[in-house]
Amino acid sequence: MTEWLLPLVPTWGLWLVAMTTFLSCLALPVPASLVMLAAGGFAAAGDLALWQVAGAAFAGAVLGDHAGFLLARTVGAPIVARMARTPAREQALHRARAVLDRSGPGAVFLSRWLLSPLGPYVNIASGAAGMSLRRFTPPGIAGEAIWVAIYTGLGYAFADRIVELGGLLGNLSGALAAAAVAVALGIWLVRALGRTTPT
């Protein structure tokens, strides 16, 4: 996909950057980080303005986050209500909501930039769990600002090494996301075993 997408950056410019970040926040497989790097590189060459590139990427990402969140909130609530038909499931959902209420904004913030592969799924989980928009929006905006600044800034600074940099950052981000999932599953497993161990 990157072979035909990257040459479109100077032609379609800001619209392509905004649309790519929007779609990536809806869990569609588009190389948003690489497009931001390329757009930053074109800004370094004088073909685009860096502040406009960053603004378009930021607007697309924030709109994509909120589209996923609101869609899950609208469609997810009936699914969650159906899941809570038994007392055990209702109690499990109540615990999940309590965890999201305690650490939800932190998870939203970190999944925007440090664990960005998890971002779209955190949007959906937050919306389906009924997180309020005022708890979701500030950490989401702050995290997206960091994500956009990192990728457009690195593209601007290292315009001659965009493909290598994109591969390195993609691998690092994927490894961090996998590690976060592994740690979360490990914690869940330890707690589950603790509840089932006879005293």
Structure report:
It contains 8 helices and no strands. The protein has 199 residues and is mostly helical. It has one domain.
Name the features.
single chain; 199 residues; mainly alpha; 8 helices; elongated
Concise description?
The protein has one domain. 82% of the residues lie in helices and 0% in strands.
Write the layout of secondary structure elements.
Layout: H1 2-5, H2 9-24, H3 32-44, H4 50-83, H5 87-113, H6 119-128, H7 133-157, H8 162-196
Q: What's the SSE pattern?
A: HHHHHHHH
Which class best fits the helix and strand makeup? mainly alpha
Q: Tell me the number of helical segments per DSSP (H or I, 4 or more residues long).
A: 8
**Uncertain regions spanning at least 5 consecutive residues:** none
Number of domains: 1
Radius of gyration using CA atoms only: 19 Å
Indicate the overall shape: elongated
Largest sheet: number of strands, sense, barrel closure: none
- Please tell me the overall pLDDT: 80
* End-to-end Cα distance: 56 Å
Task: Estimate percent helicity.
Answer: over 70%
Strand content: under 5%
What is the number of beta strands? 0
